[in-house]
Sequence to fold (281 residues):
Amino acid sequence: MWGKTKTDSRISVLIPEVAQPPTIVRIQPMAAVRIATWNTKQGVAPRQKAPVLWDWISRETDADILVLTEARVTAEGIPDGWQAIYTPGGLGGRRNYGTIIAARNVKIQRAEFPRSQKPSEYPNPATTFAVEVFVDDEIELVVLGAYGLLDDGENGMNELGLIVAEYVDVIEEYGLERVVLAGDFNLWPQHMLPIIDKMELKDVTSQRKSFPKLREPRGGSRIWTHKNGAKDTDGARQELDFIFVSKHFDGKLKDIRGGVDDFPDAWDMSDHAPVAVTLEF
Fold:
């Protein structure tokens, strides 16, 4: 049974009231998988060419699964060794960017599931969609990649309502046991975290053992993942990029990194810095 709960004056979030969702079938899984999310800034004024961005994020995060936002596939294509799922042409027209979910060492395929709402209640599929992650031909994980698209004067909270609708359908189909939600939400922690708690997810960054000291952090930011303004100027200390995981992963989150303090040359690549974590199975 599903009910509506008002969690913010600007958003109503669907959350499970009582449910025992199905678990994901799995056999002898790999020991762990590393996941990272990063806004590549390929939408407007990219700072590097696509091959440089791919090489940097692959090397710096050592991720098996990447959720890349404001990303696009250029003429060079997807690098060898990677599989990627995305909407060709992105948002369409001049906005030829969107979300890319890419993987190596594991197989992914786009998740298909019944829809409970009308199409207008969901985010643009170029920015937010789910993939199934396979290990030994069995589904081990479901990753929902998301981008808080700011359109027509809207803010991140408007888009989060649509993302939550997608999330509810995902857990209705796959259960709560092994779900990851990751991306750039264009919202600060003070707005995100109360809603995420209602969604029965755990914030990865909150599990860090220590945090850098930020000057005048915005909205409860703990790490600096977005620098507004020109590359060589100062900017607001903002945390807009997150990885959230099922509570099944309590005690199984390792090597949590995020923000420019952990990725010091991130501003040479983008106006965002990655967030990364290893999930032990």
